[in-house]
Specification:
Elements: H1 3-12, E1 18-22, H2 26-29, H3 38-42, E2 51-54, H4 56-62, E3 71-74, E4 76-77, E5 90-91, H5 95-100, E6 105-110, H6 117-132, E7 138-142, H7 153-165, E8 170-174, H8 180-185, E9 191-194, H9 202-214, E10 219-221, H10 224-227, H11 232-245, H12 249-264
Parallel strand pairs: 1-2, 1-10, 2-3, 3-6, 6-7, 7-8, 8-9, 9-10
Antiparallel strand pairs: 4-5
Helix pairs in contact: 9-11, 9-12, 11-12
Length: about 260
C-alpha cells in the first residue's frame, strides 16, 4: 500500500476507528427530513465525526471549502424512490472529478442478489481499477434497496466478502443482531456499520453500535439516527464516546443525558 492510500485511510480512521456522517440520502430520495439545509444541520456536529459522506452536488453547493474534515464522495446513483428498482445504479462521477474535488475516498453501492448484481459489482470493480492508480480508497456500500429482510448475517457476509474480493478498501454494511461477528471475520478489510431505519430509542442506537464495535466493526456511518434525533449534538457526542473512547452503551447514554440536561437548563 503506497503512502497516499495509507494517508487517506488514516484521515478517515484516526486510531483505526471512524465515525462517518452521511448526508447523501437526497441522491435517491430527494429532500430528506432534517437535510433541507444540510450544512446548517451538520455544522454543529463537525467536532464529533471523522468524515463526511456526500455527493458532489452537495459538496460544491453547501459545504464550505474551509471545511476541515475528509470527504467520502458518493459516486453511484441514477435511480430514485419513484423508479422501479433502486439497484439499477451506474457510476455518476469520473476519476478526474474525484481528483478535482480532493476527496479522501469514494463510496459506491453494490446490490448483491438483485437483478442488477453484475452491473453494480462491475461498477465497484471499474472504480477500484481507476482509484487505485491514484491512491484513493473505495468504500463499497452493501445496499439492499427496499428489501430490508436481506439484512441477516448470511447475506451481509456474502456481500461484504465479495466487495473485499473485488478490491474495496472499506465496506459499509448493516449491523445484524445474530452472528454479526461472523460477517466481520469473513471480511478482510475494515467494516463500518450503517444506521438503517431510525431506531425507537436513543439507547437502542447506542446498544447496537457498541455491540457491533465489540464484534469487530471499526466504526459507523450514521446519519438519520443523529440529525433526525431531537437532540443531535448529544447523540453525536455519545456515539463518539463509544467509537473513540471505548464507552459502553450505558456510559454513552449517560453522556447523552448529561448534555441534554445542560442544554435545557
Amino acid at each position: 500500500m503506497d503512502w497516499g492510500m495509507k494517508n487517506r485511510l488514516n484521515q478517515l480512521m484516526p486510531n483505526g476507528h471512524c465515525f462517518f456522517m452521511p448526508i447523501d440520502h437526497g441522491y435517491f430520495q430527494g429532500p430528506t427530513t432534517g437535510l433541507e439545509q444540510p450544512w446548517e444541520t451538520i455544522r454543529p456536529l463537525v467536532a464529533h465525526f471523522d468524515a463526511l459522506f456526500c455527493t458532489r452536488g452537495m459538496l460544491r453547493s453547501v459545504i464550505p471549502p474551509t471545511f476541515g474534515k475528509p470527504v467520502i464522495l458518493r459516486v453511484s446513483g441514477g435511480t430514485s424512490m419513484a423508479g422501479k428498482d433502486l439497484a439499477n445504479e451506474v457510476v455518476t462521477t469520473s476519476i478526474e472529478e474525484i481528483i478535482r474535488l480532493n476527496v479522501a475516498a469514494v463510496g459506491v453501492s453494490i446490490f448483491v442478489g438483485s437483478d442488477y448484481e453484475k452491473q453494480t459489482l462491475s461498477n465497484l470493480s471499474k472504480l477500484v481499477n481507476e482509484c487505485e492508480n491514484y491512491g484513493i480508497p473505495v468504500m463499497a456500500v452493501t445496499a439492499v434497496g427496499r428489501e430490508m429482510e436481506k439484512r441477516d448475517a448470511r447475506y451481509l457476509g456474502l456481500s461484504c466478502r465479495i466487495a473485499a474480493e473485488l478490491g474495496a478498501r472499506v465496506v459499509k454494511t448493516y449491523w445484524c443482531e445474530k452472528d454479526f461477528d461472523k460477517v466481520v471475520r469473513g471480511c478482510p478489510v475494515p467494516v463500518v456499520m450503517a444506521g438503517g431505519p431510525k431506531c425507537e430509542t436513543d439507547l437502542e442506537v447506542l446498544e447496537f453500535v457498541w455491540d457491533g464495535m465489540q464484534k469487530g466493526a471499526v466504526g459507523i456511518n450514521l446519519g438519520r439516527n443523529v440529525w433526525q434525533n431531537p437532540n443531535p449534538l448529544p447523540m453525536a457526542a455519545a456515539l463518539n464516546a463509544i467509537i473513540h473512547h471505548n464507552a459502553t452503551a450505558q456510559e454513552a447514554h449517560e453522556v447523552l443525558c448529561e448534555q441534554v440536561r445542560r442544554n435545557t437548563q
